[in-house]
Design a protein that fits this description.
alpha/beta; TIM Barrel; 2 domains; 8-stranded parallel beta sheet; two-stranded antiparallel sheet; 46% helix; binds iron/sulfur cluster
């Protein structure tokens, strides 16, 4: 089995394969509980969820009632002020059946406005969480997001225990500044999107890329027992990347190139209210979901996307120079085909 790692400056010892709680919101409670219990039985002791992930917290709460092993629980709030943050925390605790949570994170700090509301202003969400921590409802506070520069600012300006960032072998910008700084500051490191939101099909390679580093918790989303078993087997092998695997990663990086959306949200807002990052992920949804689920998750996003005026305001804002209007067209066509 992979070695446990110390979670930042806390005294928690965490297995580096964590449980990402988004996908269980799409399956029945029975299947969700089975997946969580299977993961924990296989050594996973870190579960990440969010109040915004449908009924994920409730399903995890149900699984926890049947688990005797101690598990480190992490959830998050997208609240924009201290009152909402407190309300979210209390709801998360109720959903999970806990009196205190190990880690409560600010969910997706992705713009200057978010930074102000979630972190900086007098009645920010962070202030609400700090108050709750002083009352013993939260053990540690963390921050999450897709925009490395905002995360860097957050961890420099405030006292977070952990940072959760987008990280996989095709989205590895964090290696440049965020990771070295977070390591220097001894923060808990949580890699979200280890499979690039479904873009990477080479699960073993993608997980090994993160796990072999020895200090990062990867939290792939898991909804079936089969996925749990596969991920556990990869983590258990605890193998270093071989020379040929490193070559394969270089090859895939070249093949996939830079032409994919990192979900940073810098392109927003769109004057036509198009949920650009969501629409540009259609392929990853399609690969993983039934047509019914695609319709459920994307139905209301596709119609506005057909109104793209090709004004290119978003293109000017995108730091990766993505040809967004063209990509929107391609994704809309794929989604409609799948939903037909
Ligand atoms: S090009 Fe399309 S998606 Fe981009 S801002 Fe204009 S209308 Fe919105
Ligand atoms: S289109 Fe560009 S700016 Fe918008 S979320 Fe994707 S990568 Fe970020």
């Amino acid at each position: 089995m992979a070695k446990k790692i110390t979670f930042g400056s806390t005294d928690h010892q965490i297995y580096p394969l964590g449980f990402g709680g988004i996908p269980i919101s799409r399956v029945s409670k029975k299947e969700a509980v089975k997946a969580v219990k299977g993961a924990v039985a296989g050594g996973v002791n870190f579960i990440d969820t969010a109040i915004a992930y449908g009924d994920s917290e409730e399903k995890i709460g149900a699984a926890l009632k049947e688990i005797e092993t101690e598990v480190f629980l992490a959830s998050k709030t997208p609240a924009k002020n201290s009152k909402e943050a407190r309300e979210d925390l209390e709801e998360s605790l109720r959903n999970l059946g806990l009196e205190k949570i190990n880690l409560y994170q600010l969910h997706n700090v992705s713009s200057e406005e978010d930074y102000e509301n979630q972190i900086a202003k007098d009645n920010s969400a962070l202030k609400g969480l700090q108050q709750a921590k002083s009352e013993g409802l939260i053990e540690h506070i963390g921050v999450t997001g897709h925009a490395d520069d905002l995360l860097i600012r957050a961890i420099k300006e405030e006292n977070f225990a952990s940072v959760q960032f987008c990280y996989n072998f095709i989205e590895y910008e964090a290696e440049e500044k965020l990771l070295p700084l977070a390591r220097e500051m001894d923060l808990g490191l949580i890699a979200m999107k280890p499979l690039a939101g479904g873009r990477l099909e080479q699960v073993d390679l993608a997980l090994k890329y993160i796990l072999h580093q020895g200090d990062i918790i990867a939290i792939p989303g898991m909804e079936t027992s089969q996925e749990v078993e596969e991920n556990l087997a990869i983590a258990a092998a605890q193998e270093k990347l071989t020379g040929s695997e490193k070559e394969k990663i270089t090859e895939l990086r070249e093949e996939i190139g830079d032409n994919f959306c990192r979900r940073c949200g810098y392109c927003l807002p769109c004057p036509e209210d198009i949920a650009i990052p969501m629409v540009l992920r259609v392929d990853s949804f399609i690969n993983r979901m039934t047509p019914e689920k695609v319709a459920e998750w994307l139905g209301d996003k596709i119609e506005p996307a057909e109104n793209c005026q090709e004004c290119e305001i978003c293109v000017e804002r995108c730091p990766f120079d993505l040809p967004i209007p063209g990509l929107i067209k391609e994704n809309v066509a794929s989604a409609k085909k799948r939903m037909d």
